[in-house]
């Protein structure tokens, strides 16, 4: 088993004198960093190397946008009841008329964006200028983070997917804040918004934007933050593909942990090792192309059409995204959690810029990153298995895609593991780090 040597990262703390910096700008940034650290209980301290480039970020959606949402939602036409919308059948025919009607009323009359915004802003947030060095494009990447005062802390980057966002990992960050004071936190936790999502820059207009671009951008972000000597990537959904590519193509990414490894059946594997639970998972995975994947094919082949439709009307966006949050989970998520994510897409108008991964991955004839041999992981690789994932695949399959040193099955949990089972996923990540990082 490969072991990764611990590294030491110098952070800017309240014990560092601002007089030690060469420029007035550095002094200002140091004071700003100390202010952030005090605001966020000591977790907002920036790495010294990043002090002059990283900017603090606070979400503040204009009231005019909230008013526009309310008016648009209030005057959106709700279609009549049909056989398909009346018969729920565990969402197999789509969301029910009742759910759409009741959720719209809740969004209008009970949901409090300002309350959710305040909660999100209680976590340190930043923006950073990042260059896609291969394409010479410049991006601004938004991220939330916990920076540890522990000099041996392990840098971790958590990567979300679609229709998720950086919000998926706030429960895990909350657990870490509750569990560790900043002096003892064993990790630097970086949770970026993917390009085209939330408050990060949009993909370019003159060329195809691929997961390889995202992987380069995030690797550069981690290097710019001072973690070029080594970090670990974790991801689900689209983020799982990005994390795999980071591990396969970038030296600084020393290990990869996933909670989705969407792939086809490999040509050769140890079939006798598959457990009964994994067989049930494979039966579920076999249903994905027949009953679930229509959305992915649409987004792969007609992304401009569907994104324009969804961006034009909040009721359409709520119905389309809400269906996924209802159907892809083991247990129901709180309605406020679902609506916060949908509201984020609406306010940032990023449903139109978030679909670029789908032509690469789901166009018929293309293969996913987890199937592509050029992204075989020749470094420590971990996988968490959740039974209600849209396509849970067995250990024997995953072993054909990399150096699988960690595999853990859970009795509960679905596609949005970081939201559904944050304690279980965090424990898996911590145990994986303990196994591969010394």
UniProtKB/TrEMBL annotation:
One of its GO terms (biological process) is epoxide metabolic process. GO terms for molecular function: epoxide hydrolase activity. Keywords: Hydrolase. Residues 54-169 form the Epoxide hydrolase N-terminal domain. The active site is at residues 237, 358, 415. InterPro entries: AB_hydrolase_fold, Epox_hydrolase-like, Epoxide_hydro_N, Epoxide_hydrolase. Belongs to the peptidase S33 family. This is Epoxide hydrolase N-terminal domain-containing protein.
């Amino acid at each position: 088993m490969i072991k990764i040597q611990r590294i030491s990262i110098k952070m800017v703390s309240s014990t560092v004198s601002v007089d030690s910096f060469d420029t007035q700008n550095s002094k200002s940034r140091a004071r700003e960093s100390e202010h952030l650290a005090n605001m966020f209980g000591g977790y907002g301290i920036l790495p010294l190397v990043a002090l002059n480039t990283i900017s603090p970020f606070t979400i503040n959606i204009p009231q005019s946008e909230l008013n526009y949402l309310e008016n648009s939602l209030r005057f959106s036409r709700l279609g009549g009841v049909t056989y398909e919308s009346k018969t729920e059948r565990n969402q197999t025919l789509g969301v029910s008329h009742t759910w759409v009607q009741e959720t719209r009323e809740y969004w209008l009359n009970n949901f409090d964006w300002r309350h959710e915004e305040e909660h999100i802003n209680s976590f340190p947030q930043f923006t950073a200028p990042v260059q896609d060095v291969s394409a010479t494009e410049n991006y601004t990447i938004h991220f939330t983070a916990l920076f540890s005062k522990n000099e041996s802390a392990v840098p971790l980057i958590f990567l979300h997917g679609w229709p998720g966002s950086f919000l998926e990992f706030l429960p895990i960050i909350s657990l870490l804040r509750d569990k560790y004071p900043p002096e003892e936190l064993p990790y630097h936790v970086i949770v970026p918004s993917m390009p085209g999502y939330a408050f990060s820059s949009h993909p370019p207009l003159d060329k195809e934007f691929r997961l390889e671009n995202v992987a380069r951008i995030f690797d550069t972000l981690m290097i710019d933050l001072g973690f070029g000597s080594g970090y670990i990537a974790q991801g689900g959904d689209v983020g799982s593909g990005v994390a795999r590519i980071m591990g396969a193509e970038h030296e600084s990414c020393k290990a990869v942990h996933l909670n989705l490894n969407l792939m086809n059946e490999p040509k050769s594997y140890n079939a006798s090792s598959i457990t009964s639970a994994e067989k049930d998972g494979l039966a579920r995975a076999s249903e994905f192309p027949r009953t679930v994947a229509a959305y992915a094919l649409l987004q792969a082949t007609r992304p401009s059409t569907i994104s324009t439709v969804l961006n034009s009307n909040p009721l359409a966006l709520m119905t389309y995204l809400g269906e996924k949050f209802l159907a892809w989970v083991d247990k129901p998520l709180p309605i406020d959690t679902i609506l916060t994510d949908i509201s984020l897409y609406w306010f940032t108008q990023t449903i139109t810029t978030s679909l670029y991964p789908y032509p690469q991955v789901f166009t018929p004839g293309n293969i996913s990153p987890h199937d592509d041999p050029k992204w075989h992981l020749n470094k420590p690789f971990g996988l968490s298995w959740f039974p209600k994932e849209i396509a849970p695949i067995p250990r024997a399959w995953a072993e054909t895609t990399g150096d699988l040193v960690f595999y853990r099955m859970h009795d509960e949990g679905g596609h949005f593991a970081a939201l559904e089972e944050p304690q279980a996923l965090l424990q898996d990540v911590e145990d994986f780090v303990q196994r591969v990082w010394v």
